[in-house]
Amino acid sequence: MTTTVSPAATPTLLVDPARWPDVARVPNVPLRAAVAGRLLRRVARRRGLRIELPGGRTLQQAPPGAPVLRLHCPQAFLHRVGESGLIGFGESYQAGDWDSPDLVALLTELATAPETLMPTGVQWLRPLFVQRPPDGELPTTANARRNIHRHYDLSNELFALFLDPTMTYSSALFPTGPGRGPVATRDGLPAAQHRKIDRLLDLARVGPGTRLLEIGTGWGELALRAAARGAHVVSLTLSEEQLALARRRIADAGQADRAEVRLCDYRAVDGEYDAVVSVEMIEAVGRPFWPEYFATLDRVLAPDGRAALQAITMPHDRMLASSRTYTWILKYIFPGGLIPSVRAIEETAARHTRLRLTHADAYGPHYAETLRLWRERFTERSPQVAALGFDEVFQRMWELYLAYSEAGFRTGYLDVHQILLTRDEAAA
């Protein structure tokens, strides 16, 4: 059923049903909502959460300083979660049914050992809450451009509001302090992004005369850095917004003779290259297409070529468990994707190509700090985001996405690696 269950269950925000149909709709699933309520109490008790209800009431006692889940509309929250699990959890936040004074702290607690959130004895209930990804979002050649368009073509101006002046939308690499953790400041973000790019280019041995293929242009900063080293760059993107701005930035920098940006699927690329680099693009490839992706790298690399990838990763067992699960992130943020494990990258390349993983360097805490800086700037610039035409539901969606991602890296549920793939003769 899809009707509103009571006046108290209507969305807290004014939600445009044409733009956000599943956020505007409150399901009526009383039995599932009851199950969700029992699970909420269990999670709150086991994780030490404070659940605040309307009128200042609390669900149960919690320790001082506990992460807070503040329910503005408990019935809507439970019915959404009861119908679609974590997708409903995210849609409930978009609708304003719940909030938290420290969203990252709450999500960090929930992202710690997420497999333990549901009791072992009721794991059989999981299929009731889990959907399968729709075929229309599978990143085939026909679908990939549409998937990319939904995220990266939102607006260059939107991304410029929270990214640094390099327009780099991937993990930075900060200096480390005495405790070996990243020392991240907003002023230091551009230099940290350049440090990350330069390390990846060094890994691929990009220098004067290098024929470089970049899969996934972003807004052109890596292509600019490589061209400044004297490389000849061909960069591929499926985003028309990124294509236009990257070309303009390259031309303004006087590097148009060294860096070319093409609107092209990686599967259609031709030529031979001394090096291939790709930053956080493999996550959009989709597991069924990993063999073709790595075969493409193998096909275009010169005999002694090197492929350097930056990839968001997750533990292999978690990757396998989530590989056929439709999540809130897939539905609203990155359709068609799947975060790989380092093991999956290594095994797929070895099984389908002559490439072998010869180096993998992790720096997940740096991504948590990168996301923190983006999230803070995004929330600070809420009026400018609204002026671009993005409503409150969208803004809450992106706040949750950035906070959820930050929590994933803080707990180690997610990591980020720079990975080198070579053939045996190029490994030295």
Question: What's this model, at a glance?
Answer:
With 428 residues, the chain is of the alpha/beta class. It contains 17 helices and 10 strands.
What would you say this structure looks like, in words?
By secondary structure, the protein is α/β, with parallel strands linked by helices. It has 2 domains: 7-130, no CATH class; 137-426, 3-Layer(aba) Sandwich (Rossmann fold), CATH 3.40.50. It contains 17 helices and 10 strands. It has helices at 21-24, 30-47, 74-95, 103-111, 126-129, 141-152, 156-162, 189-203, 221-228, 240-252, 290-300, 316-322, 328-332, 342-352, 364-380, 382-387, 392-411, and strands spanning 50-52, 68-71, 98-99, 211-215, 232-237, 259-263, 273-279, 301-313, 356-362, 415-422. The strands form 2 sheets. Strands 6-5-4-7-8-10-9 form a 7-stranded mixed sheet, with helices on both faces. It has a 3-stranded mixed sheet with strand order 1-2-3. Helix 8 packs across helix 9 and helix 11 (290-300) packs across helix 14.
